[in-house]
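Re: that backbone. Tokens:
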């Protein structure tokens, strides 16, 4: 009977896995950083279509580590740093962000926003580390 309890408590194939997101080269050591986690191509970079978001206050540091639990599958992360603390991503007249931003896989778009496939990473077990460098 103990074996039954043990197997019932074992995580299933889609159980959330620990993932560590490391963000370095923050432009400001005081302005909030927002991380948007996406798990669909259709919703990628669309307002309100993220699976969830997190806000991190850098507390005087130029980098941070954020542990999260993600279900297995394909994920992508977009981050912004709200330098003027107005709780939105400021953009110029062309719609290009004027505040620092970055994406998983350190994709650096030149003309258009990147696609999900460029930024995606696979969560298929514990211990995944996603490193993102935020540049102005």
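Recovered sequence:
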């Amino acid at each position: 009977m103990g074996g039954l309890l043990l197997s019932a408590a074992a995580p299933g194939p889609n159980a959330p896995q620990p993932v560590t997101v490391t963000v370095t080269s923050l432009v400001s050591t005081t302005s909030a950083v927002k991380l948007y986690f996406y798990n669909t191509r259709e919703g990628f970079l669309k307002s309100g279509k993220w699976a969830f978001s997190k806000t991190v206050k850098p507390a005087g540091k130029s980098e941070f580590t954020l542990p999260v639990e993600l279900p297995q599958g394909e994920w992508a992360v977009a981050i912004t740093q709200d330098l003027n603390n107005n709780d939105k991503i400021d953009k110029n007249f062309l719609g290009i962000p004027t505040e620092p931003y970055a994406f998983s896989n350190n994709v650096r778009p030149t003309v258009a926003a990147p696609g999900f496939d460029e930024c995606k990473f696979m969560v298929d077990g514990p211990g995944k580390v996603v490193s993102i460098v935020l540049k102005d």
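Helices lie at 2-9, 116-119. The first helix runs from residue 2 to 9.
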